[in-house]
Amino acid sequence: MARVFVITGPSGVGKGTLIRGLMAREPRLELSVSATTRAPRPGEQDGVDYHFLSREEFDRRVAAGDFVEHADYAGRSYGTLRSELERRVRAGVPVVLEIEVQGARQVRAAMPEAVQVFIAPPSLDALRTRLVGRGTDDAEEVQRRLTVAGHELHAQPEFAHVVVNDRLEEALDRLTEIVTAELD
Ligand code: 5GP
């Protein structure tokens, strides 16, 4: 049976880096490309990093029932399109969703069999250092993301698997173990 893996945790915790490492080690996995109303960052490609949608188009697709889950995050909307998920599940291809906590909850309600992993920072201070160091967001946006992160960290106990991303290699080993155990 195809498995769905939800990787969640606060912005800046290293979900993207861990998922890239995981997918290099587990080539059976495919990544669901999310939709968002936020503007592309330099270097981001439409259809590859995200499906970048206008607010009108996003809302139209919500009303059409095109999303498995969707949520507002730091003033923008993000969501998983059914088309990204369902064709892979039907074809037996295991799929990874990189989403925030509200979306993870919606997936848990709709698909309790999905495997959910929360990636936690060693501390909020470490998260701040990473968000600032990443350089993708201005000071205001970093602050917005840290405020959300404070709430998201309280959600940790809801998750069957929690991986603390202190040392990247160790966190990647742990994440790979969890995923491989489910796939085999
Ligand atoms: P960013 O703007 O940094 O790319 O993403 C902001 C947050 O939205 C991150 O925590 C990211 O994991 C989350 N996110 C990305 N795609 C989705 C999605 O499809 N659904 C939900 N609920 N969150 C998403």
Description:
Helices cover 45% and strands 21% of the residues. The protein has 184 residues and is an alpha/beta fold. It has seven helices and nine strands. Helix 1 (15-25) packs across helix 7 (168-183). The longest helix has 16 residues, at 139-154. The chain is globular, with a radius of gyration of 16 Å. The chain has a five-stranded parallel sheet, with helices on both faces. Strands 4-3-6-5 form a four-stranded mixed sheet. Guanosine-5'-monophosphate binds next to strand 5, strand 6 and helix 4.
Order of helical and strand elements: EHEEEHEEHEHEHHEH
Radius of gyration: 16 Å
Gap between N and C termini, in Å? 11 Å
Gross morphology is: globular
Largest sheet: 5 strands, parallel
Taking all residues together, what is the mean pLDDT?
96
**Strand-residue proportion:** 15-25%
Q: Write down how many β-strands occur, each being a DSSP E stretch of 2 or more residues.
A: 9
Q: Key terms for this structure?
A:
four-stranded mixed beta sheet; 7 helices; alpha/beta; 9 strands; 184 residues; binds guanosine-5'-monophosphate
List the helices and strands and how they pair.
Layout: E1 4-8, H1 15-25, E2 30-31, E3 35-36, E4 51-52, H2 55-63, E5 67-73, E6 76-81, H3 82-91, E7 95-98, H4 101-110, E8 115-120, H5 124-134, H6 139-154, E9 161-164, H7 168-183
Helix pairs in contact: 1-7, 5-6
Bound molecules: guanosine-5'-monophosphate.
Guanosine-5'-monophosphate (5GP) binds next to β5, β6 and α4.
How would you briefly describe this protein structure?
With 184 residues, the protein is of the alpha/beta class. 45% of the residues lie in helices and 21% in strands.
